[in-house]
Amino acid sequence: MNKFFCLFFVSLLALSVSGKELIGNLYYNFNGAYASVAQNMQNDVSAYTEHTYIIPETVVSNGVTYTVTSLDYNAFAGEYYYMERAGSTAYVIKLPKTLTTIGAGAFVRCYNISSMIIPEKVKSFKEGSRCHFYACNKLRELIYLPIKAPENWTATSFTYVPDLQSYTNPAYSINDATIKEIISFSSKTFIYNGKVPEVNWTNNVEGYEAQVDLSGLKKDVGNYVDTIPVKLTKDGETIDARVIYRYSIEGIPLTVKVNNVNRVYGSENPEFTYTIEGFINGDTESVLLEKPTISTNTTNKSNAGTYSIEASGGKAAYYTFNYVPGVLTIEKAPLKASVGNYERPYNENNPYFEIKYEGFVLSDNYSVLDTKPTATTSATRTSDVGVYDLIVSGGSDNNYDFSYSSGLLTVKKADQTLSWEQNLSNLKVYDQVELKAFATSGLPISYTMDETDVCEIYKAGSKTYISCDKPGSVRIKAIQEGNDNYETTARIYKEVKVSNPDDEKPTLSIKQVNSGTISKKVEKGEIYSFTITPETGWHIHSVTFNGADYTSQLDASNTFKTPRINADATITITYAEGSSGVSNVKANNVKILGTYNGIIVTGANSGDNISVYGTDGKLLYSGQSHGEDVSVSLPENCMYIVKVDNQTIKIGL
């Protein structure tokens, strides 16, 4: 409880009653059309000593009617000088309905007052140096009828107000003040049912019976602050009050459920639909002021997946809306990946297997796929002739669902080519010649020959030979018959001519760079002379006869004489770059001799390094001399650089 102690400063002279008029048992002051209850004191003590004072709404003075609207300063209080003086001794002071203002200290030290009703029109208690009910120790009940709390209002033990929201902070609190609503309502929220709500209320003013008029309550959906008439009755006396009732009538909840739908990636959204649950009294969508709208944030380009479909915007007079979203499922678009049929010959690499697509939407193509499918087969290069499945698999994408169509790879027999470069037209009796026809397949060759006693075909291990038995000629045929994987080759025929060695003229062959090999039949037992003229910038490096070194037999004019020729013979001439004459060549210890299939390095010291390079700088041979001749196989009709220890020789074969 807040206790307030007020000091009173007044004139030492008692106020006279002059200028005031006594009407009934109260004094009044007048101002225009209004009257106010004036203070009445004797010896600084209130002279209002009757048990009950009932202030009228109007008074008449000199034939004029005045409306009583206020209580003057200290109207029912006493004054003091050195000590407090008593206020009115009245037990009951009833205020008129016309009252709007209560002066400062109007009821100070009214010790006998236990209750008071503040009329509805009172707007303020005038601010003063004291509380208006100071020292009213018996005051236990104040009933306020103004809808809005008056300025500087006071709360006491049992304070009843029409609206707690308005009466929140009293200026003064005395006698263990509490504040209650005159009428409290247990229900403040209702669901629309087309009728005025049934409201339960409680009268909180002790000792009074209450009648509450709820006929003005609303029945439509909305939030309301209604002023409710109340009659409070006690001992035959009725107080007309009004209280504030705040309540809400909520619409009947409707549940709008958006229906789930599916569509395929790349297609437009379908029409979205919904169902509504909760209508009453046979209502349908037709009662809605605005129907709900449905939307989603997807387009035909949205990726496959699930998306929310939202509803909103419904309006109705007495319904409220709860929305349950639906789900739009965008399914992957079907995409067919297929491979055609392919053929290839045996022993070739598989071709590129092209995959074709059916089902792309929008502007998509294979480049958008997360993982492209591939076509595979079990057939390898060496797989046998046959038909093999081409399997398409492995594709994946967030927007496409793959199906596959397989193809076939047919491995056909491969063509093969037969080649046979041998010259069999100059064979001798007793010659044994390996037959060297070659098929690109690498398969063995079959040889057949007309029936004859000139030659005989026979096998020795994996090789096939012809044995020359007597002079004559015969036709021989080579063929590769093919197998499961290769076709048969075309046939090659050759004529075999066999002569008696004693009847044949020998062949003399001369090999030299840039000129190749020149062969000529010569008379048996004859000696032949040759003059060798090197090209400008070159000199003769060596001359061999059937592999033997004849360089030393060259004379100053580079003339060479052969031994007697009784059988086929070969002269090989090698050249070295430079202008050195033959005499310098003869002085060299190291000699490069040409042979029928390369060179022989002679005269090198043991431990000398020997290297042979092509003119492109590529190393063709590398070795070390052990004091003996070193043979190196090389193709003929080419240039070579031969390095022996610290000597470099550029030769041609």
How would you characterize this protein structure?
By secondary structure, this protein is mostly beta strands. Helices cover 1% and strands 44% of the residues. The strands form 17 sheets. Strands 47, 48, 50, 51, 53, 56, 57, 59 and 60 form a 9-stranded mixed beta sheet that branches. Strands 1, 2, 3, 7, 8, 10 and 12 form a 7-stranded mixed beta sheet that branches. It has a 4-stranded parallel beta sheet with strand order 11-13-15-17, with no helix packed on it. It starts with 20 loop residues before the first strand and ends with a strand. It has 6 domains: 21-181, Ribonuclease Inhibitor (Leucine-rich repeat, LRR (right-handed beta-alpha superhelix)); 183-250, Immunoglobulin-like (Sandwich); 252-331, Ribosomal Protein L9, domain 2 (Roll); 333-412, Ribosomal Protein L9, domain 2 (Roll); 418-503, Immunoglobulin-like; 507-652, Sandwich (Immunoglobulin-like), CATH 2.60.40.3080. Mean pLDDT is 89; it is low at 1-18 and 581-587. The radius of gyration is 68 Å and the shape is rod-shaped. A hairpin with a 2-residue loop joins β4 and β5 (45-46). It is built from 1 helix and 60 strands.
